[in-house]
Amino acid sequence: MLRLKELPIVESLRDLGNIPDGKILINTINAHSYNTAQKDGAFAEALCKGDYLIPDGASIVKACRWLKAKSRPRERIAGWDLFEFEMSRLNSKMEKFEDKKKKNGRVMFLGSSEKVLARIRERAATEYPYLEVVTYSPPYKPVFSDEDNRAMIQAVNDADPDLLWIGMTAPKQEKWTYSHWNELNIRCHCGTIGAVFDFYAGTVKRAPLWWQRHSLEWNFRLIMEPRRMWRRYIIGNTRFLYNIYKEL
């Protein structure tokens, strides 16, 4: 069982700048993933044994305070925040080498549909001109075959990215990345950021800033997609409080 009280969690946006270079796995945790990890041991292991865990939810920030946890984040760090930070940092780094004719930094997006990935490539070309975007859309199925896994691993290794994003929704993305981590011959940060692919592509609308700042982004998603999200948020939030209570 995953225990929030014992997890090392990144405590502020500023701390993202302290993550060292190299092959680093960065996962996110929110109320939904915390609940899921209580029943899914492989998912719990993937979250616990990644290199860094960021608090993608105000509920996680508040719960850490209630529990007097090992880590007490001072603010929410959404997957979007991680995405913007890493993309901007790499773009700025590559811009400095422009006069030296250094090749652009390479960012790989693994996951989602080709439609979403095409929109990501188009937007990134404008917003991050010093980054080259490489994409791979895996087959849409509950479980990947050995052949699928080999193809995905090969695609990543052939790309040799300077930054890798995995977007296959939780817990699938975390479990896949963790189970194949030693086969990925990369030297860069890797983030499992799920919905950020759709947010950045514009295929799913993200909550306006007011909702984000008042910890109501979950409510906005529930309003926008009630059929898909009601169980996650209506039942899930109650379950989250119950699971936190068990840690007291």
What proportion of the residues is helical, as a percent range?
40-55%
Tell me the radius of gyration: 18 Å
Please report which band the strand proportion falls in: under 5%, 5-15%, 15-25%, 25-35%, 35-45% or over 45%.
5-15%
Which segments are poorly predicted (pLDDT under 50) over 5 or more consecutive residues? none
- Biggest sheet statistics: 6 strands, parallel
Termini Cα gap: 14 Å
CATH-scheme architecture? 3-Layer(aba) Sandwich
Total of helices: 11
The averaged pLDDT comes out at 94
Structural class: alpha/beta
Order of helices and strands: EHHEHHEHEHEHEHHHH
What is the gist of this entry?
The protein has 248 residues and is of the alpha/beta class. The chain has helices spanning 31-39, 41-49, 58-67, 79-95, 114-127, 146-159, 172-179, 196-201, 209-213, 217-224, 226-245; strands at residues 24-29, 52-55, 105-111, 131-136, 163-167, 189-192. It is 48% helix and 13% strand.
Structural commentary:
There is one protein chain. With 248 residues, the chain is of the alpha/beta class. The chain has a single domain, classed as Rossmann fold, CATH 3.40.50. The chain is 48% helix and 13% strand. A 6-stranded parallel beta sheet has the order 2-1-6-5-3-4, sandwiched between helices. Helix 7 links the parallel strand 5 and strand 6. The chain is globular and about 50 Å long. The chain starts with 23 loop residues before the first strand and ends with a helix.
